[in-house]
Structure formats: C-alpha cells, structure tokens
Amino acid sequence: MIPLRDSPLRRNKSRITTGLIIVNVVIFFFQSLLFPNELRAFIVQFALVPQKFFSPDRLNLNVLDYLSFITNMFLHGSLLHLISNMWTLWIFGPSVEDRIGGGRFLMFYLLAGLGASWTHAFFNQSSAIPTLGASGAISGVLGCYVRLFPKSQILMILPIPFLPIFFPISALSYAIFWLISQVVPAVMELLYPRQEGGVAWWAHVGGFVAGWYLVPIFNRKKRARTLFIDREEDWLNRRYYPPQRW
User: Fold this and answer.
1) CA distances in angstroms from 142 to 10, 93, 116, listed in the order given
2) Which domains are assigned to the chain?
3) Number of CB atoms found within 10 A of residue 160's CB
4) CA–CA separation, 228 vs 98, rounded Å?
5) Which of 18, 84, 131, 153 can bridge 48 by disulfide, Cβ–Cβ 3.0-4.6 Å?
6) Within 13 A of 83's CA, how many CA atoms are on the CB side?
7) pTM for the full model?
8) For the chain, how far is it from start to end, CA to CA, in angstroms?
9) How many angstroms separate the CA atoms of 14 and 95, rounded?
10) Cα-based distances in Å from 192 to 12, 48, 188, 195, 219
11) Distance between CA 114 and CA 120 in Å, rounded?
C-alpha cells in the first residue's frame, strides 16, 4: 500500500519539508558523483556504524563520528530508497509542519531522527554495517502525525498491475498497521541476527516512538491553531472526500 494524500487542510506553505527534501536530493546526487573508493569513505564517515560507539576504541572517536547520528539521515543507498522516503515525508510532513510551525518542525525532525539513530545503535551494538536513510526521522513524523490527526483520512493505492485499487484509511489504522509491520521483523531480527545489510527496523520503531512522545513539547498552544482545527473538523465531519480533493 502506498499513501497518496492526506485530508487535513493547511494554512501555510511547507517550506521546511520542501527544504529537507531538496537537501536530501542534492546530497544523493553528490554521492552519485563520487568514485567508488570516495563513496565508500564518505559513507563510512557520515553513515551510522553502531560498532564504533560500543567498542574499546570509542574513546578515540571525534565530534564528526558522533555527528553521524544526525548526518546518516541525509544519506540514501539508492534512487528508490530516496524516492520512497521523500514521498512519505511529502505526504505526512506538511500537515505536521503546519500544525507545529516551521522552526519547531525542523528541530522535531532532527530530534526524531536522533532518537531513531540511538535506538538502532542500541539494538545493534556489534554491527559494523553502515546505516543510512531518512526513514527513522520520517517515522517520527508519522508518529507525530497520528497523534495530532488520528481521525484524518489517507488515500491509499494498492498498486496491482493494470488494476490499481484506491481506498481511504484513517491515520490511526494506517499507523497501527505500519507499526506492526516494523515491530515484528525488528523482534525477529533480535532472535535471528542477520549478517548482511537490510532494513533498519529498530530505527523505524525508535523514530516513531520519539515522534509520538515529542508532540506535547512541540505542539503549539490551542489559541495559535484554533482556526486550523475548526477547518480540519469541518472537513472531517463531511465524511465525504470528493475525488478532486485528492
């Protein structure tokens, strides 16, 4: 299932979300210009390698090594990896940014990504596999989104060849389904550790939990968003989503 659009109405342009997408795209194309040896060194330096921080040599790490808890969320391993992450950010980021404000959203995004990185490192302390991608921070955006807009509707597509199926689903239902799909393989990975690279399931779980619990800190006071809430509730109470709205 692929989300296509959400239902909450927004007042402001999504400048921070757009900026984050642009930064990720620019860095990815910078990566694509590097020679293989340069790219390998670049990834090792700026991606997250958990083993670095739990080995006896951790006392020799510098500030740049610790910055990898942040920098890894701006790197991607393939074009498909980039597109899938940026698409998800574009679906859920604007509504969260509009609700909590641009500056708060940027700080929230970085903290959620930091929470995702620490969670991944904690559950993979012996891993020397570089971890990269914005999905941990975006999972935090999803956690925030479902807490702010649990009743909002998300238009989904089931991409069956030649016969795609479109259907709406509540944000809460989507988040429950998504979280189960992350927790189950994360637990299985603890029971049966993998030796090769794959999906950083614990980063997704950690990012979602961080995003959920950061909401009270970053959500604006009610008087600063009354008009927005009223408009959103008017939209939701219609219980009818004309096709052109999507």
Assistant:
1) 17, 8, 13
2) 2-245 (1.20.1540.10)
3) 8
4) 9
5) 131
6) 4
7) 0.87
8) 16
9) 8
10) 46, 22, 6, 10, 39
11) 10
